[in-house]
């Protein structure tokens, strides 16, 4: 029997994933705006988020959350992390028992510090929870370029079943039992991407960019392992793979935020003109709280936090990084 898939959230990545899964299984995309659902059904496009790309004609859309969820065998959460809890509360009214729920969001919940699978388990305790993560830029996937991702679910057999739902053509999907590491890699790299973008805005050069990405990987790995992730995960697709794509691509929203900060603009100005969420803006504050909780030094994240929330500037942040006294590269701190 082919699994029926529901993707909740019609942003660029949610729509892209729905486009892919519709080629393997009957797929329903939930859109907040009825006009977006009508466009997907009639025109097979989502011009607001994916201009110039056509969606699979098999994909269906609805503005009714109940209609999207009630017959689903797999529910994919494509909403931002700050809206995850609210939407899950509505999903709980319609979802059938034991249906697995997979998160696409790469963020941590402010206040609770919870990963998205932890939020899923809190709202839907009887449902298996997983995450899809990796270096996945939506427009490149829609253009047909090769890409790879990881489906992270603790149950290996369930991971293999869901793997086939997402795997499509040159979009390769691997399994990973380390849900903690995969989620943290996806969330923490956004902060490093803001730092990298600030350097690009300042024009610091390729050597500096490389150093920030590399030391950023060490930084997020330290915290990720302290929180229960496995070191190997951060050397894989959900770690360094996602980090490289997010730090270097001009399609990256978090890198864009950093670049604009480097050019002297305020975070309020930058966010006001964006039509999609840059998860790293909210995640940065959570990361600093986790840094203190676990006793992990995170100098790059600290400088980003200073620019976003403490009145510092990108140029001051980069001066601060050069003043940080280096120890051994293998030092756990």
Distance from N terminus to C terminus (CA atoms, Å) equals 50 Å
CATH class of the largest domain, anyone? Alpha Beta
**Helix-strand pattern, N to C?**
EHEHEHEHEHEHEHEHHHHHHHHH
Protein structure class: alpha/beta
Q: Which value, in Å, is the CA radius of gyration? A: 19 Å
Strand order of the largest sheet: 3-2-1-4-5-6-7-8
Give the mean pLDDT: 94
Helix content: 40-55%
How many beta strands in the DSSP annotation? Answer: 8
Would you tell me which CATH topology of the largest domain applies?
Rossmann fold
Q: CATH superfamily membership of the largest domain, which one? A: NAD(P)-binding Rossmann-like Domain
Which geometry do the CA atoms define? globular
How much beta, percentage-wise? Answer: 5-15%
* Integer count of domains: 2
Please state the second-level CATH architecture of the largest domain. Answer: 3-Layer(aba) Sandwich
Q: Main β-sheet: number of strands, strand sense, barrel status?
A: 8 strands, mixed
Unreliable segments of 5+ consecutive residues: none
**What's the helix count?**
16
